[in-house]
Q: What sequence folds into this?
């Protein structure tokens, strides 16, 4: 008997990973990137108050974080006007998505998502033996009707939708989301990933009773709050579902510095407002760079812009590779037709300027390859 | 169909949690603890070099951590004289134990541990549908022979042993551990939790080929390195098993500040050496406090001391409750006969002095209750 054998589900999983980190790419190319614009990180950084709180908390790292995240959870509850029992903190949205799948999906259960949507969610679904059913994007946006139809046809347990969407940056009005809930098949739960919500226009955010048993929402400090490294995400949903996470989560999994930093970041809504303005300016800048190169930037309600490179996926992949060679880290959608685009994260002007310099060269290289 | 239904395994899990955090206890009592000596945290704190590195890293929290933990993994490999492919970083030993169970245990598989040993490991085994078989401690230490016999009798998939042990602080010589490997039933993997290894005498640490397919070891920055809040643990084991973690882990789950801090902490072995000496002094101090109160401190190879309160579990629980009322946070083993003890973490003298002041009062209260 092989001592190193894996459990049946794990044995059937591929050895691939959802994303290769930029540090790995830097090691491969033997030099650091000039511009880190690929992971939808927020180079405008955390609130100075959060930075100060985290720096001060460093000496107290000998303590575990509060496993209940009491102070942060209560502050978030007040911020969102929900009950603290309707909020669960976790190691980023990624960690929480994994827990949600584990909590709700039995092997063989169907989970519906969009072809080209968040790979890490798919990683978790496969990781717990769920069966993924994917529907195509429509007009570079996730397609609520197609998702609902697939959910009904397959008796889906979960339906994943990101609003605003990653990787395309598109968004649906909140009214479309609430209408989706009314048409959601019995037994299905909507997984509403709102990681980019703070960048979106107000009308993109649906008004949903947090006790509504049809949906669980996910938010994060990684994007608008500029704290991807802290790994602090949270779910908002009905209390019985939120309580379920306590059955399976790593109770002491959140790091203390991040927890303290997130509380300080939440209290600095002025910084968040300034970040939104900087990101809006950067989106326009990226669109201008695209235009200057004869390319089209897609409208975005996020901190990144999908730039249509005007060719097929192979062409965009050549642009991406050429940009990486020139020191510019960006990523791109994984499937056609979305993969005609590259995805450029908003960042400070020096990095966007480096992108502006590199893009014409990358396009020329891609065209002659 | 209930939208909020849980998957069959999750539905069968209790809503309990392995440990209540001290912050929760503080909120219940309405005041902070005077002495935080219950979670085997290390109040002597992280290396000042780690603190400085973490403080400096705070402003860079907008970046995700390197998901491969390349630099830290390679530094640990050099430190332990193993290959980087034999090391996996994770969100504390707790997080890694959960992943190991998920990776190796199918529902119904038997996992052997000791009655009274690490509750969080049991939490994970139950959480993935494993069947726990527990053997009693012998002479306040885990019992390798009993573990092996149970493993053979039940065809165990995993056998858990902490060396040094938590919650009793006892330890086996490394030669006992390597002998265990030779008697491990086919198909069983030894889960060797060495969270407290750095506090133990050198002869407690077995010499094991990291490629040995019979065992996976766990280490942490939470204890001797004084960085519990950072959530940086690691596994050392055969590369094919280590690679398996990549199939299921939250690749971006580690926080960046902790990752950077751990690298700096590892480089400051002088601080680790000083911490070992401070902890040894604190162990003697706790033993002296016990003696002054007519109690017996058990020998310890860790950063905590089990103090035999001289009565049964109910008596020790009354002592624990009285100590908490007096502002002293300690914990205790969960089952008889271990629960005649309270478990006191080593810490700086002011906290131990507060414990020394409170203990006689707590004992008096417990005796008159």
A:
């Amino acid at each position: 008997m092989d001592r190193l054998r894996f459990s049946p589900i794990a044995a059937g999983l591929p050895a691939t990973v959802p994303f290769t980190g930029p540090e790995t790419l830097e090691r491969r190319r033997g030099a650091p990137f000039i511009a880190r614009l690929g992971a939808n990180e927020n180079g405008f950084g955390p609130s100075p108050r959060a930075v100060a709180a985290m720096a001060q908390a460093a000496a107290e790292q000998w303590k575990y974080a509060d496993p209940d995240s009491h102070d942060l959870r209560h502050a978030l509850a007040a911020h969102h006007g929900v009950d603290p029992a309707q909020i669960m903190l976790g190691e980023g949205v990624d960690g929480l998505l994994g827990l949600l799948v584990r909590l709700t999906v039995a092997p063989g259960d169907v989970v519906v998502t969009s072809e080209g949507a968040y790979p890490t969610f798919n990683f978790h679904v496969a990781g717990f033996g769920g069966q993924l059913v994917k529907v195509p994007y429509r007009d570079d946006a996730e397609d609520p009707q197609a998702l609902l139809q697939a959910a009904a046809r397959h008796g889906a347990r979960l339906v994943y939708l990101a609003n605003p969407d990653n990787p395309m940056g598109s968004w649906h009005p909140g009214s479309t989301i609430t209408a989706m809930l009314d048409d959601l098949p019995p037994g299905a739960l909507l997984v509403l990933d709102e990681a980019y919500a703070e960048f979106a226009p107000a009308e993109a955010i649906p008004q949903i009773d947090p006790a509504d048993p049809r949906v669980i929402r996910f938010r994060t400090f990684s994007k608008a709050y500029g704290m991807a490294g802290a790994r602090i995400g949270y779910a908002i949903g009905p209390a019985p579902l939120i309580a379920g996470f306590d059955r399976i989560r790593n109770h002491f999994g959140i790091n203390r510095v991040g927890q303290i930093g997130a509380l300080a970041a939440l209290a600095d809504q002025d910084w968040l407002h300034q970040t939104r303005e900087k990101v809006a300016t950067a989106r326009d800048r990226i669109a201008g760079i695209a235009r200057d190169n004869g390319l089209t930037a897609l409208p975005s309600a996020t901190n990144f812009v999908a730039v249509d490179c005007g060719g097929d996926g192979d062409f965009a992949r050549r642009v991406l590779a050429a940009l990486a060679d020139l020191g510019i880290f960006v990523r791109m959608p994984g499937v056609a037709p979305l993969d005609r685009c590259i995805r450029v994260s908003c960042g400070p002007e020096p990095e966007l300027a480096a992108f502006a310099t590199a893009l014409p060269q990358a396009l020329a290289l891609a065209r002659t390859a």
